[in-house]
TrEMBL record:
The gene is moxR_3. This is MoxR-like ATPase. GO terms for molecular function: ATP binding; ATP hydrolysis activity. Keywords: ATP-binding, Nucleotide-binding. Belongs to the MoxR family. Residues 243-312 form the ChlI/MoxR AAA lid domain. The keyword Plastid does not apply. Residues 50-180 form the ATPase AAA-3 domain.
Length: 327
């Protein structure tokens, strides 16, 4: 098989593909009827990128986050964000011991491999900003001392966009730290029946068996970084981002960080698909989850009920994709 530039490429190792498939099947056993959501979630996991799951209550946002944490044999912490949550409750605090006459650092819940930030928009902006450094740099600085968090490190945050009382809108700088933003959506009738049966039987994400440890996951992430992405696809990603910056309905378009996020996520999606190379279809599928939360529309567009998805649809129609060369 050849990629966009005609080079002969190999798929990921059979062992790698098998582990990824097992993880997908395990998560899908509790996140019912949402194979595309599971695929994109695993793409973020393999790209070691943070995930924001935004939807109405009760559709499985937290279940998805807990399922991802359950299949990874590593440290997992959950933070229930509330208006009175302090930054020290997230990153940790240094405590002085009078009897010993020294200081001791008490690490916060961000010192874990998978951090579930539940209802992140209920915390104050000051507490939300405590996550910025660690999400981007993979370390925190407390009392002038820099401390690394474990690797791999993944934040899976949830928020409810409907119930706005007592919430704080995530600033653009924080939204930009999330590799993907997903919406779970309502299940269809047959799936909802299965969800009800599973709840009656007491099935939960905690029942899932860990399928990979942090060492194996680090290797999967390393292999994901080696997935081939041809130069024409880099140029395609850049042109898609550039088209958002000149779109008449957009005030702030996608930055170079968004281009990097798109190419990282595309490698993750190719790995999930068992391919050793990225296709234009991977980039097209990811444009919405990667770019939409990075756009700021002009006020007139908002008044006309134009959405970021509308803008990205016109961008995809206006920017021609490179044609793969197959052998």
């Amino acid at each position: 098989m050849a990629g966009v530039n005609g080079a002969v490429l190999r798929p990921p190792a059979r062992e790698s593909t098998s582990v990824v498939r097992q993880i997908a099947d395990s998560v899908s056993s509790v996140v019912l009827g949402k194979p595309d959501v599971v695929r994109l979630t695993l793409a973020a996991l393999l790209a070691e990128g943070h995930l924001l799951v935004e939807d109405v209550p009760g559709v499985g946002k937290t279940t998805l986050a807990r399922a991802v944490a359950a299949v990874v044999r590593g440290a997992c912490k959950r933070i229930q964000f509330t208006p009175d949550l302090q930054p020290s409750d997230v990153v940790g605090v240094t405590v002085y011991h009078r009897t010993r006459g020294d200081f001791e650092f008490h690490p916060g819940p961000v010192f874990a491999n998978v951090v579930i930030a539940d209802e992140i928009n209920r915390a104050s902006p000051r507490t939300q900003s405590a996550l910025l450094e660690v999400m981007e740099e993979r370390h925190v600085t407390v009392d002038g001392v820099r401390r690394e968090v474990p690797r791999p490190f993944l934040v899976v945050a949830t928020q409810n966009p409907v119930e706005m009382d007592g919430t704080y809108r995530l600033p653009e700088a924080q939204l930009d730290r999330f590799l993907l933003r997903l919406s779970v959506g309502y299940p269809d009738e047959d799936v909802e029946v299965e969800v009800a049966r599973a709840a009656a039987a007491g099935r939960s994400p905690e029942d899932l068996s860990p399928l990979t440890d942090t060492r194996t996951l680090r290797e999967l992430i390393r292999l994901t970084g080696r997935i081939h992405l041809a130069d024409p696809l880099y140029r395609y990603a850049v042109r898609l981002a550039a088209a958002t910056r000149t779109h008449p309905d957009v005030r702030v378009g996608v930055s170079p960080r968004g281009v990097i996020a798109l190419t990282r996520a595309a490698r993750g999606l190719a790995h999930v698909s068992g391919r050793g190379y990225v296709l234009p279809e991977d980039l097209k599928e990811l444009v919405g989850p990667v770019f939409a939360h990075r756009l700021v529309l002009v006020p007139d567009a908002q008044l006309r009920a134009v959405t970021p998805q509308d803008v990205l649809g016109s961008v995809l129609r206006g920017v021609p994709a490179p044609v793969p060369v197959r052998t």
